Amino acid sequence: MDHSSYAARPASIGSQVLVRKFARRLEIRNLQTQALLRTHILAERPGTVVLPQDERPFNPSREMRRILAQARTIGPLAERLCQHLFDTEGRVGQRKLWGIVGLIRRYPRRLIESACEIAMREGVPSYKHVKALTERLLEQALAELDAPVQGELPLTQEHHLIRDGDDYVDLFTLGAKHSAAMPSTHGDLS
């Protein structure tokens, strides 16, 4: 199939069912009696979990607590976004949460945290959006690093803070005369 998951209740967990796939829908039947258990419209995207909201488990597992703890290490906004995803999708949304906390392997924490803030402000709290925002923030940060800074500006000989060259000539001449007029402090070695 397309690696999507479909709810099969009232079939018990671990029981075998008959799945019939049609052009636009999917039927789940009891294997022994052939009784229709569920009908679903086929998922449009591979990997989709088709599970009614009232059947989603919302009790936090140890795994979910670990994900939220990792989100907390990224920052309070990442934790808040992950908690929001769990509150709306339940444990079914766990893959999205793993995706968000997994961004830490490739991106700095502050970029992920900023991306989470933007995603919540824009009302699009999803892993794909957070990842795209993080990539864009990284590109902007790299572009800023490549931008010229004050020390890289072209050198100039004339500026209101730079003295005229004749002033330096006079200074060096005065210093040379002063040094020639001073008696040598080194003893005569001959």
Give a structural overview:
It is a single chain. With 190 residues, the protein is mainly α. Among the domains are: 5-52, no CATH class; 62-144, no CATH class. The protein is 46% helix and 11% strand. It is built from 6 helices and 5 strands; from the N terminus they run βββββαααααα. It has helices at residues 62-74, 76-89, 94-102, 109-122, 127-146, 165-181; strands at 5-6, 17-21, 25-30, 36-41, 49-50. The strands form 2 sheets. A 3-stranded antiparallel sheet has the order 2-3-4, with no helix packed on it. A hairpin with a 3-residue loop joins β2 and β3 (25-30). α1 (62-74) packs parallel to α3 (94-102) and α2 (76-89) runs antiparallel to α3 (94-102). The longest helix is centred in the last third of the chain and has 20 residues, at 127-146. It is rod-shaped, with a radius of gyration of 35 Å. The termini are far apart. The mean pLDDT is 82.
Q: Please count the helical segments.
A: 6
State the low-pLDDT regions, or none: none
**Estimated radius of gyration:** 35 Å
H-E order: EEEEEHHHHHH
The geometry reads as: rod-shaped
Distance N to C terminus: 102 Å
Structural classification: mainly alpha
Largest sheet: 3 strands, antiparallel
Taken as a percent bin, the fraction of beta residues is 5-15%
Percent helix = 40-55%
Query: What's the total count of β strands?
Result: 5
Mean residue pLDDT: 82
Strand arrangement across the biggest beta sheet = 2-3-4
Protein name: Transposase
Organism: Paraburkholderia silvatlantica
